[in-house]
Design a protein that fits this description.
This protein has 128 residues and is mainly beta. The chain has one helix at residues 23-27, and strands spanning 14-15, 20-21, 33-39, 57-71, 74-78, 83-86, 92-108.
Length: 128
């Protein structure tokens, strides 16, 4: 029998009032982090953060809509035709475009082992 999991994004378990989908846990992924986040136009509370402490690099992909990814003052337009990798020590924040954004974020530690944050587990806490 083939080993796979298929699930519609809108059927995944959520946190933050439905804005973040626990995609990694819902699909049974154990080797890297992955989540889907829906942000409306004008959302201004996406955290300015880095991963210097845990060494995680991230890839951002807009599945629909658009956003501006601010990486230490460099503004990168994020659309469904653009993928952006951000290294662990780079500070980043995100501002959704005029139609909002559905964002896929994938993260892992190069050469390291993956340890999921409890908030990304099924039934986990509602915040990081």
């Amino acid at each position: 029998m083939a080993d796979y999991t298929a699930m519609r994004i809108d059927e995944m378990e959520t946190l933050y009032g439905g804005a973040m989908k626990r995609a990694r846990a819902c699909l049974g992924i154990s080797s890297f982090g992955m989540q889907v986040t829906d942000l409306p136009a004008g959302f201004d509370r996406y955290p300015d953060h880095d991963h210097a402490d845990d060494g995680q690099e991230e890839v951002y992909v807009a599945l629909r809509g658009s956003a501006e990814l601010d990486i230490e003052g460099d503004k990168v337009e994020l659309t469904p035709e653009t993928m952006v990798r951000v290294g662990p020590s780079a500070k980043r924040t995100l501002r959704p475009g005029p139609d909002g954004v559905r964002l896929l974020c994938i993260g892992a530690v190069p050469g390291g082992s993956f340890a999921p944050h409890p908030a990304t587990e099924l039934g986990g806490p509602e915040s990081f």
